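## retry 2 of 3
previous attempt timed out at serialization; input unchanged, resubmitting
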Amino acid sequence: MRNLVLSILLFGAVCFATAQELNCQITIDTQQVNQTNQQIFRTLERSLNDFVNKTQWTNKDFKPEERINCSMVINVAEYNSDQFVATIQVQSSRPIYNSSFESPVFNFNDRQFRFVYQEFQPIVYNPNAFTTNLVAVISYYVYVILGIDADTFKLRGGSEYFAQAQQIVNLAQPSPFLGWKEADGNRTRWLLLDNLLNNTHKEYRMVMYNYHRVGMDLMADDTRAAKSTIANSLELFKALNSRRPNSFLLQTFFDAKAEEIESIYSGGPKVNIVNLVETLNKVAPFHATKWGKIKF
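## retry succeeded, writing output
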């Protein structure tokens, strides 16, 4: 990561015979569960990987090299019969043009994940019905990943995917499971999507486009100009922070990008970072240690 700016290489995509939209690695972590028989967890892991990677989630034709690299780690805290209490860590990244580098774009830990699952039960997405909380949560994050990725290539390009995630939220409202309603807390699936769609947080989606498509994707051609563009894009967060200080969406952005930002401005051609560091300390003080390492 430290040598990001200095290690721009030609990006060679690997093609596969068939592909859907995602290249997703789903892992079931059972370290917290005292369960000798691990078979149900392995079956669930295989089923979820097949479900996410083999389902056609959109009506678009994704080339094999365009598949979105992402992961979901389900940490099972409790298991009793067919009842699961867990958290799910969701991450995704997108490639940078003319580079071998993958830029992280989403990193979120959902702590409100309970579901019912019996071994070998079908896992199928129905866009018109809430079937199980397991299917709903996984499908929701698929569309969030698709939407955020699309926003990095086209301004507000992810709207159609966020609309599908919104449909999942609406269908889940009558369910007894936490995370789907406004009243369920301050780091919920409901709030994440509300922030993504709400004009009050419009700068987030503007930054996602400018940072990646106008900044990172030009890093190989003109590193100094790209670094300046990225710094200017981050300045947009001052307006968002003035309306919603320490907002959930800002936290989510910097959970994914803080290490990368530190790396970008800790090597390579120098640019003026005085205003940038001041802005970062104001809008993302929870990463102040990283901003303190940006020295020039």
